[in-house]
Amino acid sequence: MDVRNDGGGHEIISIKGILGLLMGNIDARDNGKRALAEYLSRDLPYKLQPDDVYVTAGCTQAIEISLSILARPGGNILLPRPGFPIYGLCAAFRNLEVRYFDLLPEKQWEVDLSSLEKLADSNTVAMVIINPGNPCGNVYTYRHLNEIAETAKRLGIVVIADEVYGHLAFGANPFVPMGVFGSIAPVITLGSMSKRWLVPGWRLGWLVTNDPDGTLKSPKFVERLKKYCDICGGPATFIQAAVPTIVEETQEVFFKKTINILKQASEICLQKIREINCISCPSKPEGSMAFMVKLNISLLKDISDDIDFCFKLAKEESVIILPGLAVGLKNWIRITFAVEPSSLEEALERVKSFCQRHSC
Fold it and tell me: Could you say which protein family the record assigns here (predicted)?
């Protein structure tokens, strides 16, 4: 960097120095995009280009950008229920009507595709799929993802695939990226480093156009997407500069250790939940870091619903659990198992004591 003194004791950066900083920012961004394109291409039947990747400040910004560029007057978007609440907030901010389709707990939280098709019309811009599931802890099969892509093709809409928990699968179903089906229907994939690499504070995410047929690569769409990303800004330059080293040199043993820890924690949850009469788990967790369980309010006294349950549980036992209503399901609760096993066991013992104390 070219730093000089102005004669008055103040250091100033020359034009050359400023240009050097700007070029450094561009190099960090481009190298990060290249590394992410190569990393994400490993699981696809085609090769992504760096221009298919847009680096964002976490996955939340990727959600906001994707909904903003797809929004149009009178448009609507199809969101899963239960789902991640940020989608509804971003849609409302962009005047997109939200239409919720159900996930089926008795079928490992698969999409109810028949009801989804009835919700769509000529103003539907996209549907959102979260896989591995948040808040449900499910992992979709190749077959079901193919069915989702074929449904999107019939409806003529884009699939927004939220894969922030990508590869965090520890059950019978391996993780399959929705981008595998990009030749059937255009896919916008959203992801982040926060979960798989366990660095949530870094705020580095991505938006990727998985579209081998070029539906999302019209000059107008690409220009709009680029301009929106420029307006929003992105992650800090030094974080972007670290991306190539992180994605290329992280050892497989690190990922396997994370998977083993999550699998062990999920099994602890299932074992403890089976000991509580008023809570049932229709679908065992197979991925991500949380899952949904159902409350039987009729077995509890002085508890009116899931919100009342969670409020009194926090007050009496100092255990915080998210009420299902927050993610779209009344009288369910979301349990996070990304916790130290000893703390998880203690917390669920407290939940058990609470339920016994309030049992009818």
Answer: Belongs to the class-I pyridoxal-phosphate-dependent aminotransferase family.
